[in-house]
Design goal:
Strand content: 5-15%
Radius of gyration: 23 Å
Shape: elongated
Distance between the termini: 40 Å
Structural class: mainly alpha
Length: 253
Amino acid sequence: MPETYLSLASSVRVREKEIKILNRYFAKTPVSEITHYMFQNMLIDLDKEGYAHTTISGVNTWANMIFKYGIRNKLMKDNPRIDAIIPKKAITIEDLEKNTLEETYFEQKELLTFLDAVLKIGLELNVERFYTLAFSGMRPGELVALKKSDLDFENKTIRISKTLYSENNNMKEYGLETTKTNKARTMTPHSFRHTHISMMTEAGVDLHTMKRIGHEDPDTTLKVYTHVTEKMKIKSINGITSMNGDLLQKLSF
């Protein structure tokens, strides 16, 4: 299936979800009778129901497009979305202390301990999965979407062109989509991406050359990971190869 079609299909699903939410509140209300008060209360309700901020923001944006269309076609006079505020969850000091950046990646010794445990007591294919995550920097969704044809053992490369997608987080209901950039999270499988970038930084690889990490703006990576090390003067990527080799030799087989 062409990549452009996959991307479009994803956008359509998101828009359909947002339309369903809007219809749940306003399907029986003439568009000319929707007030700012009604629309703001809908945003507050969605927040109380636990919808993600991105979902609420999408509903807000899509509603704005509908209201503008209604105004252009003389179906309504005012846009009830104007000055509407999307609720934001307050971040407490405890939240900040629990989600520090340092906790979202493994130090080298910690990675060694983890991978050693995987070798000794890991489940089937755990070794292949976690080693690939740690030493490639790919996302978990990209890992499980890999096909045999993506592996080039002769040139020692992996082609990453797709990721697993499940709108309802259902293992039996999923599809493949083109890769896209996401924000990093706390200690989850995504932490291996942080670990990989950390290792590359410590090996002296310039963060501006890390195109395969997937950040749209290299400066973003630079700002986030400057705390890892100041040793970034070595420009050759041979440094990370050497460091990875030493780490692998220390593990128990």
